[in-house]
Write a structure and sequence with these properties.
369 residues, alpha/beta, Rossmann fold, 2 domains, 6-stranded mixed β-sheet, 20% strand, globular
């Protein structure tokens, strides 16, 4: 039987209160002060993972820092906390450990953590890319967007995840725009895409100009704050935000009921899976990064599959193949930490149709004058 561990952490003090109710009466700074010096903990034992070929068990290990602490405390301190969580995984018998949420973002994206552990480490980013693309295509289909005629935009295209997304999307679309800050890097990526797929993408450093006509947007920039705002998007646009911190402002979902924002796919995991932890997902489903760790355990491929800032297209293809082999599949969508249902998407689609119709009427009226 394969074995793995997956490191998680509280997103904020509210997550801590779900485990320790008394903390809801404490100021957030007090809760974070307690977390800062708390040791890592075994959060739960994961059982029941079973595909047609193999079985696996695992553990959630809690790294006691919030998202804000992960991003603001000194990097060496945060890395030591993550490494300590990995050492708990080793003691439990895990043969590979996955980095969840912001633990995969800090520092050099797992390289230092792996160097200090005796078991392989994976960020899960290869399967995250795979499911983000699969989820984006499925969401576009439900929204009535035809990939063959859609204007597709990759924001942050020259980064490791962005370039992988651009190279893979270039296989399936006709109109691809890549946005980045470095024109020379954009041109180099464009030449590579032309040689691989024959598609010649449009290049720009102007985000606003790129988004105005975009039907599908995959955004993976390295910005430290929101860069995609409500006024930049056309009605009916599908936006997949893979960046952490998020590229898409929460104002988009609050003010634009005609735009669909997702964060990649939710994955159905095979077997009678019991995570023994409620993290807000439907039964037997999890994040793609978590699923990559589980897949490697099922395969007993104990290697640092995805590590560092570079994402290999070949590994994205490979982990997708392993997912099909073991019966993993897309099970839904998430947006700002809540589920997005088919009914939600259908409502957004109707709102987009109505908005486009209103805009068309206004356009005709203006032209008539």
């Amino acid at each position: 039987m394969g074995s793995f561990a997956f490191i998680i952490h509280p997103l904020d003090s509210g997550d801590v209160a779900r485990k320790f109710p008394f903390t809801r009466y404490l100021p957030e700074r007090v809760v974070e002060g307690l977390l800062k010096y708390a040791p890592p903990v075994k959060t739960s034992h994961i059982t029941g993972i079973r595909s047609a070929q193999a079985e696996a068990e695992g553990w959630f290990i809690g790294c006691t820092l919030t998202s804000r602490q992960m991003m603001t405390l000194p990097v060496p301190f945060v890395l030591r906390k993550i490494i300590a969580a990995g050492q708990v995984a080793e003691k439990l018998g895990a043969k590979i450990v996955g980095l969840g949420a912001f633990t995969s973002v800090v520092g050099d994206a797992g390289v230092t953590v792996a160097r200090h552990l005796g078991i392989p480490v994976t960020t899960g980013n290869s399967y995250t890319v795979a499911t983000a693309l699969e989820g984006t295509k499925e969401a576009a289909r439900i929204m009535g967007i035809d990939l063959r005629t859609a204007q597709v935009v990759i924001v942050g295209a020259t980064g490791s995840i962005g370039s992988a997304c651009a190279r893979i999307m270039a296989r399936d679309v006709r109109y691809l725009t890549m946005v980045g800050r470095d024109s020379e890097k954009l041109e180099g990526l464009a030449r590579r895409i032309v040689s691989e797929s024959g598609l010649s993408p449009r290049l720009t450093t102007d985000l606003k100009a790129a988004l105005v006509d975009a039907d599908i947007i995959i955004t993976v920039s390295s910005a430290t704050g929101s860069i995609i705002m409500p006024e930049l998007l056309k009605p009916g646009a599908v936006v997949c935000d893979v960046a952490r911190p998020r590229d898409v402002s929460k104002l988009v979902v609050e003010k634009r009921d005609d735009v669909l924002v997702i964060e990649g796919g939710v994955v159905q995991i095979p077997g009678d899976v019991d995570f023994n932890l409620n993290f807000g997902f439907p039964p037997r489903t999890g994040y793609a990064c978590m699923a990559e760790t589980i897949l490697l355990a099922l395969e007993e491929r104990y290697e640092s599959f995805t590590l560092g800032r570079e994402i290999s297209v070949e590994k994205v293809d490979e982990i997708s193949r392993l997912a099909r082999k073991h019966g993993f599949r897309l099970a839904g969508f998430r947006s700002f930490d809540r589920a997005v249902t088919r009914e939600d998407i259908e409502r957004i689609r109707r709102n987009a149709f109505r908005k486009k119709s209103q805009n068309a009427v206004v356009s005709v009226s203006t032209t008539g004058k």
